[in-house]
Design brief:
One of its GO terms (biological process) is chromosome segregation. This protein has 573 residues and is α+β, with helices and mostly antiparallel strands. Helices cover 43% and strands 9% of the residues. It binds a DNA duplex (22 and 22 nucleotides) through strand 12, helix 6, helix 9 and helix 14.
DNA sequence: TGAGGTACTTAGGATTCCAATG
DNA sequence: CATTGGAATCCTAAGTACCTCA
């Protein structure tokens, strides 16, 4: 077997890699012994441009704070945010508050941001048009800064930090119908930040002169380096600063996640047996538990925690409403609801007859806004799962089903002689099936249609030149001089044959590309690759089939999954 | 048992990068 | 050499899960 992945050399008797160590178990209790880092840094202060806002054709000069917020709005103009009702309404309220009730500015509709918007546009152009050396220098100084403070030291090992710059101020872009979309996200100061470092390690210096961190703690039961209250959702949300995906903290948890899913694989037959039991003959609560778990297992639904009034109204399995389900003939149901990120789940599937009957009963006598599963909660469902395995919870089913599906699909591969590109396409097809199972979507790229047409045209051209080549070849065969004997056509029969082969592969590749593009129009492949499919399945498959790993895992994924790179070709999920 | 808090994973869109193309 | 479009990465919102406390 060729070694297709370049790996750090292992030294005899010395193991510096966490995934080769034995002490992974106590990670669940104590995460580290020493932790050292440079804290967080803050986005640059706002620099005013002193361009006025016009109100009833009158120039209004703004304070720096008002101007900054007005400038945010200016860059929203022309995007769909500008006309999004909640966003606009919330912004107006927030914005007017900055002026006070006796100020003449009383309505967003009458505000004219044109001059500021022009300025924003010009600045954008200026930034884009910077000379390349300047851009390069900027990039380099950014890298240097990152090199200096973008790393922490955990138990003596240098680790990348994922987010050292705290979130800049701006307008809150909540997704879907988020009740707080358009709120002002205020600027964070050192006084908002709690720092976590080792007791005997240096406390990071506050980067803003004359200011100080809110607090410094030494909590080694957690993996975060710092946290702050979210400026918009401060009542509930906390933002953490963590190490990057390549770190031991993240990698080890990731590995444990997949190991848990593999354990579920060993139990799944018993679990399915048990929930079918519950579906059939138990009391109402158990009927709901069994039926909900059936949907989670079969359709890879999220568990669906309750949400508060201050969030977009989305659902998962346990929070499904009567209006989200409809019943079709042949034991089919249609689920239609907005899930995480307000992405629509819309699917018609046949279900087990008992499930179908249960669901019909759950709906009986309820209004459209009432809960389908009114007798259970996500906690009670997870409690039920704990009876099978102490660390089992609903989300493990998504991981398990995604990984099992990938393993099964890749297991069908038996085309070792394929071109690498075709092998990659096979992999992508499997990836897509998983993504569809998990309902990972993306919006159709802008001017997708135009680009498809362009590619179609190109393909047509390629067919035409293939035709010409074949005619040219016939010329040789009938011993006539080909009429295209000039310029761009090959001068020998052999070369013509070669050119034909080249043209054919080129057409084939183009067709593959075209099909992939269309198939992937609305399917997001990345999410399942990053979060759901055990990377060892992919690594083993690549090794077995001589596909270089970088064809399927870009750099960031190779370092995230460094622990999986040593997987043996014979490994199975 | 339910609400709120905490810590972590998962998610799509925006932005940036980079290589192919004219 | 500039443009452009797809891939890769960045950003931060939005989930899950579990704990504590009344």
């Amino acid at each position: 077997m060729t070694e297709l992945i370049s790996l750090p050399k292992k030294r005899k008797g010395e193991s510096t890699n966490w995934w080769e160590e034995d002490e992974q178990d106590d990670f669940s209790i104590q995460k580290w012994k020493s932790l050292e880092h440079h804290g967080v840094i803050f986005p640059p202060d706002y620099i005013p441009h002193n361009i006025p806002l016009f109100y009833d054709d009158e120039a209004i000069s703004l304070t720096s704070e008002q101007e900054e917020v007005a400038t945010w709005w200016s860059s929203v103009i022309g995007t769909e945010w500008e006309t999004k009702e909640i966003f606009r309404k919330n912004f107006e309220q927030n914005f007017l508050k900055l002026f006070g009730s006796d100020h003449q500015i009383k309505s967003l509709d009458k505000c004219d941001f044109k001059k500021i918007a022009e300025y924003v546009e010009v600045q954008r152009e200026v930034k884009k048009a910077r000379p390349p050396e300047e851009k390069k220098q900027e990039r380099e100084s950014k890298q240097k800064l990152d090199e200096e403070i973008g790393y922490g030291i955990v138990d003596g090992k240098r680790e990348k930090i994922s987010n050292i710059i705290v979130e800049p101020p701006g307008l809150f872009r909540g997704r879907g119908q988020h009740p707080k979309a358009g709120y002002i996200k205020t600027r964070l100061r050192p006084e908002d930040i709690t720092i976590n470092v080792g007791k005997s390690n240096l406390v990071p210096k506050c980067p803003v002169p004359g200011h100080a961190w809110k607090n410094v703690v030494h909590n080694n039961y957690v993996t975060w380096l710092a946290y702050y209250k979210d400026p918009v959702l401060s009542f509930s949300n906390v933002k953490y600063v963590y190490l990057a995906a390549s770190s031991k903290f993240k990698g080890l948890n990731d590995k444990l996640k997949y190991e848990k899913a593999r354990k579920l694989k060993g139990l799944i037959d018993g679990i399915r047996h048990d929930y079918f039991d519950k579906i059939k003959k138990d009391n109402q609560v158990n009927k709901q538990l069994g039926t909900a778990l059936y949907l989670i297992d079969k359709l890879a639904l999220r568990v669906g925690n309750e949400k508060t009034e201050d969030e977009a109204d989305t659902v998962g399995c346990c929070s499904l409403k009567v209006s989200n389900i409809s019943f079709k003939e042949n034991c089919q149901i249609t689920l239609d609801f907005l899930g995480k990120d307000s992405m629509r789940y819309f699917n018609t599937v046949p279900v087990d007859p008992n499930v179908h009957e249960n669901l019909r009963k759950f709906v009986e006598g309820k209004g459209p806004d009432e809960e389908l599963f009114d007798l259970i909660t996500t906690s009670s469902l997870n409690e039920y799962l704990k009876t099978f395995m102490k660390s089992l919870s609903a989300k493990v089913f998504r991981t398990y089903n995604a990984s099992v599906t990938l393993q099964m699909l890749l297991g069908k591969f038996n085309h070792k002689n394929m071109q690498v590109e075709e092998k990659v396409q096979f992999y992508t097809d499997a990836n897509r099936e998983v993504a569809i199972l998990c309902n990972h979507q993306k919006s159709t790229p802008k001017n997708f249609e135009v680009q498809m047409e362009k590619m179609q045209d190109k393909l047509k051209d390629k067919f035409e030149s293939l035709n010409l080549l074949e005619t040219h070849l016939k010329g040789f065969l009938s011993k006539k001089i080909a009429q295209n004997a000039d310029k761009k056509f090959p001068t020998s029969e052999e070369n013509t044959r070669k050119a034909i082969v080249r043209a054919k592969t080129s057409i084939k590749n183009m067709e593959i590309k075209l099909k992939m593009k269309d198939d992937n129009k609305t399917v997001a492949l990345g999410t399942s690759k990053i979060n759901y499919m055990d990377p060892r399945i992919t690594v083993a498959w690549c090794k077995n089939n001589e596909v270089p790993i970088e064809k399927v895992f870009p750099k960031a994924l190779r370092s995230k999954f460094i622990w999986a790179m040593y997987t043996e070709p014979s490994w199975e999920f």
